[in-house]
Amino acid sequence: MSGAITPETAPPRAVVRFDCTGRAVGKMRNELDVRMVEPMEEHFELATDEGPFHGGDASAPPPLALFVGGLTGCIMTQIRAFAKRMGVALNDLQVEARVAWDWEKAGRLYETAPKFFEIDVLIDSDAPLDLQLDLVQAARKGCFIEQTLGRENRITHRLKTAEGWVAADDRRAFDPD
Amino acid sequence: MSGAITPETAPPRAVVRFDCTGRAVGKMRNELDVRMVEPMEEHFELATDEGPFHGGDASAPPPLALFVGGLTGCIMTQIRAFAKRMGVALNDLQVEARVAWDWEKAGRLYETAPKFFEIDVLIDSDAPLDLQLDLVQAARKGCFIEQTLGRENRITHRLKTAEGWVAADDRRAFDPD
């Protein structure tokens, strides 16, 4: 694993940034050009689509599949990255995530809200239970997605117009009906 | 688009649920079996991996790429789904997302926290600006991932032991050093 970052070679702090350009194609397919921007540059091509029930061609997974897969992969990656550093030898690891949202019709549109997030961790290791629990807690603190979901985040939006960018965040009088 | 759900055929409310089983393989690759469970059953195979710098084989995108791609795809899907219902004819749509996290070393481990989420929406349409802004706001309310990120969520964790499931959420005395 030459060249891999270790606790000794890691800087004290850093920013991790990902940018994504999404382009609408077809009926409901979005082509996603994802770039890690910091701390280094990497590039990934992804896509989402809906099934026929939602007007798409099922040519790619839906956005929520990427979201739930990303959450699961993130916590697993942290568990695996930290296990060695914490002296937990992992024979095997499986994680089961269950994520649900409430969905409610609002006129011709709809609104959604999170309902629950449940994560089951199945560690195959001879390490004592206390150490395994410490590992799960440490992994949660190092998991970008867990830390993001556990707090109220502000997402700022801008809309492109002929005159430049317009803030697209405050629409107080908007009524979805 | 026969069989597609419409505002008229949609139920008043529903639960949307995704489950994911992740299996650790190789060095840092996670194989993800993602299933939409409600309102209907669908199945998707995904994977994440890290690059060599983080001890992986780069055989799949990292979890954060799936997360940022899912967020971008989700808001785009809502904009496209609502545009027709709101009388906005979309000639084209592009979305640019920028998501960053702070990362800080903590002994042999690390901790992370969200830094910013920025979404730029580029709509090509002859619809008036006011209606385009209404569309963006409606899309945000219908976007599962936006609504999830905009509030503090509780993720519950359990660890499998020989005696059954143990809660893996409260480790007050744990010190990452």
C-alpha Rg of chain A (nearest Å):
20 Å
**Largest sheet entry of chain A:** 3 strands, antiparallel
What are the segments of chain A in which pLDDT stays under 50 over at least 5 consecutive residues?
Answer: 173-177
Q: What oligomeric assembly is this protein in?
A: homodimer
| Strand content range of chain A | 35-45%
- Name the helicity range of chain A: 10-25%
Outline of chain A, from the CA principal axes?
globular
Largest interface: A-B, 129 and 129 residues
Q: Average the pLDDT over all residues of chain A and give the rounded result.
A: 90
Q: Work out the helix count of chain A.
A: 3
Distance between the termini of chain A: 57 Å
Structural class of chain A: alpha+beta
Widest beta sheet: strand line-up of chain A: 1-2-3
Order of secondary-structure elements of chain A: EEEHEEHHEE
Number of distinct beta strands of chain A: 7
Q: If you had to describe this structure to a student in words, what would you say it looks like?
A:
The structure is a homodimer of 177-residue chains. The first copy, chain A, has 177 residues and is of the alpha+beta class. Chain A has 3 helices and 7 strands; from the N terminus they run βββαββααββ. The longest helix of chain A is centred in the middle third of the chain and has 23 residues, at 63-85. Strand 5 of chain A pairs parallel with strand 6 of chain B, so a sheet runs across the interface.
Summarize the topology.
The structure is a homodimer of 177-residue chains.
Chain A: E1 13-25, E2 29-38, E3 42-48, H1 63-85, E4 92-106, E5 109-124, H2 129-142, H3 144-149, E6 155-161, E7 164-167
Antiparallel strand pairs in A: 1-2, 2-3, 4-5, 6-7
